Amino acid sequence: RKLGSKQRILEYFMNNIGKVVESRDIQAASGGAVEWARRVRELRNEEGYQILSHKDRADLKPNQYLM
């Protein structure tokens, strides 16, 4: 069964909990999805995962995320 990009992104975050990850790595993990940022927002807003960005924490740079 082929995983969707949101599921791939979730697995990537689950394998990197507590580590700062870069947007390019998230996109690569998604299978190259153009809409990877939308999938990250869906995981945060609709599914309740705590995925932080530079808007949430001052120590993160733009294009960095932390779960």
What does this structure look like?
The chain starts with a helix and ends with a strand. Strands 1-2 form a two-stranded antiparallel ribbon. With 67 residues, the protein is mainly alpha-helical. The mean pLDDT is 96. It has 3 helices and 2 strands, in the order H-E-H-H-E. The protein is 42% helix and 9% strand. Helix 1 packs across helix 3 (36-45).
Q: What is the H-and-E element order?
A: HEHHE
Mean pLDDT over the full residue set? 96
- Number of E strands: 2
Can you give the helix content as a percent range? 40-55%
- Global shape: globular
Give the DSSP E fraction (strand runs of 2 or more residues): 5-15%
Amino- and carboxy-terminal Cα gap: 26 Å
Strand order of the largest sheet: 1-2
Q: How many distinct helices?
A: 3
Radius of gyration: 11 Å
Question: What secondary-structure arrangement, pairings included, does this model have?
Answer:
Blueprint (H helix, E strand, L loop, with lengths): L4 H11 L4 E3 H7 L6 H10 L18 E3 L1
Antiparallel strand pairs: 1-2
Helix pairs in contact: 1-3
